[in-house]
Amino acid sequence: MALPRFVVLKSDYNNKYLRYIEADVEVYGFLQFTEEKVMSPYAKFEVVMAKRGKGLVNIRCCYNKKYWVRWSENHYWIVAGADEPEEDKSKWSCTLFEPIYVDAKTIRFRHVQLGHYACLWRMGEGNIYDLCLFAGSNAHDRDHCDVCTIIDWESLSFKNMYIVRNFLKILSGRSCRSRPWSRRPSPPTALRDETSKVALPRFVVLKSIYNGKYLHYVKEDVQMHGFLQFSGDEVVSPYAKYEVEMAKSGRGLVNIRCCYNNKYWVRRPQNPYWIVAEADEPEEDISKWSCTLFDPICVDATTIRFRHVQLGHYTCLWRTGDMYDSCLFAGSNVPDRDQCDVCTIIDWESLLILPKHVAFKGDNGYYLSSRMIEGYPYLQFASNDIGDPTVGNEVFTTCDGSVRIKSNYFGKFWRRSPNWIWADSDETSSNNSDTLFWPIKVDNRVIALRNLENNKFCKRLSTEGKTDCLNAAISTISREARLEVEELVLSRTIYNVNYRLMDARIYNQSVLTMANGNAINRTQEPSTVEVKLQYTERRSKTWNASVSLKLGIKASIQTGVPLIADGKIEIQAEFKGEYQWGQTDESSTVVETAYTVTVPPMTMVKVSLLATKGSCDVPFSYSQRDTLINGQQIASTIDDGVYTGINCYNFQYETGQVGTQPRLTRHTYRAGSDGGGPDP
Questions:
Q1: How far apart are CA 18 and CA 7, in angstroms?
Q2: Which parts of the sequence belong to the Agglutinin domain (predicted)?
């Protein structure tokens, strides 16, 4: 019976697939019955017919392109380690196997040179060699540990990368990395196969396969401040958003930045296996413990592992049973058996966080309004006044990012019935997918809504005696499916701004020459000269939200302004006035200062004013009070703010005698109380 060219082998004993081990230091290159996914790139093997015939075969691992062979002359372990097939039966390195069918679907493989059957070997849980392939006996195993089901790889269905709802799908059957096998393990910096990388989204949310929770930044607990913990219940959270930055060194490696405090994942100095969000800048030197590089390794179509490059260990949900339970820990170079190191990747930019109180305008220029038609609560594009009480809606975002929308006029939630959208649901849970919608951004302020029960987009439709009513029955975002979103807010006030300086960072620091001047002494005696300098100090400040969508509403805001002074961040100046969220406010000030210097006889001394220019990111929470179009006032406390500022500090005078061998003297002055230039 002819074997398929490409096969997957499933153990009859434990129902796991045979896979190549590409990570562990001791069993690197071994073959082990531990794979859960039939389409894993580690589970694919090629059956190559032997040149000498007789039904014998060589078996090649498709991941590292190497043939099955004994580990060494003194071992019976079967590994994927031979660069070329060896058909001389007198050599221990012989790669020939004899396939022996048990029935139409199952098979045994006998190592020709040994005469022993390749068998799942039971070493006991906790032993790293447990379930690995071992040719230890010429007798059949009583428990069928030497029997495998043959699966034809080419009969499996594969799909390219795409996004379904908010889950990233990765090309199945394709590895995210590749590295050559050797009996002595390669270091964690081994070169990757540039053709087998996967492109991660820029912004991600990570959901644990083990406990179903999202990875959250811990900000409240002082002892655990900065830790990363799989404890979040909501995908739309400022603590769950991370930015994936490609490493400058390439090779598919990444730096991962927590978007709440804008700091990078790094080992914790006090306990070097905990992974925390504490590095102000990326560090790509793998010889340093502070290296921030991670290697993303896809497990299957939707899940991934991250390996810390400098350690060579996988980041894993760690089970401790204490306050650190479920925190991120890089303690092992072996993939976790319970998949505590495996995460589902969710594309943050596939999530759209709508404002709480909104109206929707259709492509016909009319607002979607609540109307009773034929006795049913329809939604019709029929009002030209945003102040109409029938056009208001309240948005409720669920844990997975989908939304439920409630008509203010009817006081009930939208529901698909059968494809018309009625505002008639009293359900308080999110279990009915007829009442769930997925918002998709089309353009600035323009979205589309997809109903999650039939996966169709909502559009303006005229049929069955209805005119311009909302209906979920189209598979594409047509002109009629585009909805312009407007907030029902007349005025907005931002107050009680609370900056979290413990989570702030300073970065992009550089020394600038702010001004130059000359002090000249044309006499034969030392002289004291006052040098006047003038420079322009520029600052910028931006307040933004990392989660909520503001849609251009200007707010009245009164708050202190963080500034960098003496190498740390202080709240010094005050800003008061109207401000549009996310807009950068730039200012410049001409400053005059004087410096007194003693100049030797017949000499010119050059005076320079130096300063450090730096950027800072400071997370903050704030209170927001909105006055709606109906006169109602809504107050809320939100913790998704990020302030970004740029200013100069650490002003210093530097003097140097002009000549062939100038002598430099530097005088440091503390910045003034406003974080600006030096005191005169």
A1: 10
A2: 1-152, 198-347, 352-487
Residues 134, 119 contacting (CB under 8 angstroms): yes
CATH class of 6-154: mainly beta
pLDDT at 444: 82
Question: E-strand spans in 259-375?
Answer: 263-267, 275-279, 294-298, 303-308, 313-318, 327-332, 343-347, 357-361, 367-373
Residue range 491-668 forms a domain whose CATH class is mainly beta
604, 519 contact by CB (below 8 A): yes
H or E stretch including 611?
strand 603-628
Neighbours of 477 (CB within 10 A): 17
Over residues 567-586, the pLDDT tens digits come to 889 998 788 888 888 889 89
Residue spans of the domains in the chain: they are 6-154, 162-350, 357-486, 491-668
Which helix (H) or strand (E) segment holds residue 248: the answer is none
Just give the CATH number of 357-486. Answer: 2.80.10.50
DSSP for 219-247, written as a single string = -S-STTTTBEEEEE--SS-TTS-EEEEE-
Q: What angle do CA 644, 645, 651 make, to 5 degrees?
A: 150
Whether residue 68 contacts residue 76, with contact meaning beta carbons closer than 8 Å, is answered with: no
CB 552 within 8 A of CB 545: no
Write out pLDDT tens, residues 324-378: 899 999 988 889 888 999 999 999 888 888 999 999 999 999 999 999 999 999 9
Tokens 């022993």: give the residue.
116
Q: How far apart are the C-alpha atoms of 78 and 76, rounded to whole Å?
A: 6
Render 492-554 in DSSP notation, one character per residue. EEEEEEEE-GGG-EEEEEEEEEEEEEEEEE-SSS-EEEEEEEEEEEEEEEEEEESSS--TT-E
Identify residue 543 by its one-letter amino acid code: W
Q: CA angle, 296 as apex, 293 and 299 as ends, to 5°?
A: 155
Residue 185 has pLDDT above 50, yes or no: no
Cβ(110)–Cβ(97) below 8 Å: yes
pLDDT tens-digit series, residues 499-547:
988 888 899 999 999 999 998 888 888 989 899 999 999 999 999 887 7
**The domain 162-350 is classified under which CATH number: 3.30.559.30, 1.20.120.740, 1.10.10.10, 2.80.10.50?**
2.80.10.50
Q: Where are the alpha helices (DSSP H) in 514-656?
A: none
Q: Do domains 6-154 and 357-486 have the same CATH topology?
A: yes
d(CA 346, CA 344): 6
pTM: 0.61
